[in-house]
Amino acid sequence: MAWVFGIMTAAGLLIFMINGDGSGALEALVKGCDGAVSLTVTLAGAYILWSGLMRIAEKAGLIEKLAKRMQKPLSFLMPGCGDAAAPVALNLAANFFGLGAAATPFGIEAMQRLDRGDGRASNNMVMFIALNSSAIELLPTGVIALRTACGSAAPYDIVLPTFLASIAAAAAAVLSCKLLERVFK
Amino acid sequence: MPVAVFALIVYALIRRVNVYKAFVEGAAEALPRLLNILPYLAAMLAAIEIFRGSGALDAVVKLVGPALESVGLPAGTAPLILLRPFSGSASLALLKDILTEHGPDSPAGRTASVILGSTETVFYTVSVYFGSVGVTRTRHSIPAALISGIVGTAAGALLTSVF
Predict the structure, then answer these.
(1) Distance between CA B38 and CA A38 in Å, rounded?
(2) Residues of B in contact with A86 (CB under 8 A)
(3) Which domain holds residue B56?
(4) DSSP class of residue A117?
(5) Under an 8 A CB cutoff, do B99 and A146 touch?
(6) What pLDDT tens digit does each residue of chain B (163 aa) get?
(7) Which of B12, B46, B148 sits opposite A33 (nearest CB)?
(8) Residues forming a β-bridge with A120
């Protein structure tokens, strides 16, 4: 991540300076930070709601039950993930059914429970994030709506290939995690 | 979803959980966590903004685009593939352009739709999730997520030409 941030920022700054547009560079950086603030505000409501509901489920004993049930099926992907299994399962389910607003709070909860507080990503954390990046979803509703709006004769034609491509992406995520976790210490 | 939330509340009430207190306690945790994420998000979005604003991303598209199209990806889809990991909203806007320009049922329109649906805004996901726990040593997460994205893109393009 340090490389991604460093190279992108340095390359951007360099090009702005070559073009003699120093103020443009600063404007772009500030615009990015502004974007982070407005995105946080946009996320806040849904996040507060789902955090509250999740705590109710926890107090009712549901999270513990779900964690016990999900530990076995998840044990290949995330061995020893313990009580993080519940929010991981909820996050994957929310993504699958296209409930992005609920998926993020569950995902953050999962990360809290996987964290050991040493500032370093564990194998399970990376596996969880890699799985999230393959976007397995039953119906890509946003894309379908856009296709319909653009006058597609068959807006749903892309559902099956999208789903299969997601599965391929998830398989690649699992495989590359298992291989790379030995390389990146 | 409303059914699940309803069932949750009723079940918790039966189990004699103080649902009001539990909700407020959970909700109170949300804001500090969001504030923890904010700096990570700001760093990522600032880097993305300056990279795009300077024209560096366009340069990469010009450089890599022809190579992507020469391996069989429909013309017009290369910018989407390269922009996809960085920005969800910008990719969606780009998909709209592709659908309008090439038509939603053209090879380019279909391929672009599948690619957008089967990939994720990797850099955003990584900064939010690792930001929430203060992890800066992300190890193999970016490579693994990008490999997953490349495979998803390639599979998407291949499957679109089959179906």
Answers:
(1) 10
(2) none
(3) 32-162
(4) S
(5) yes
(6) 789 899 999 999 999 999 999 999 999 999 999 999 999 999 999 999 999 999 998 898 889 888 888 888 888 899 999 999 988 888 999 999 999 999 999 999 999 999 999 999 999 999 999 999 999 999 999 999 999 999 999 999 999 988 7
(7) B46
(8) B137
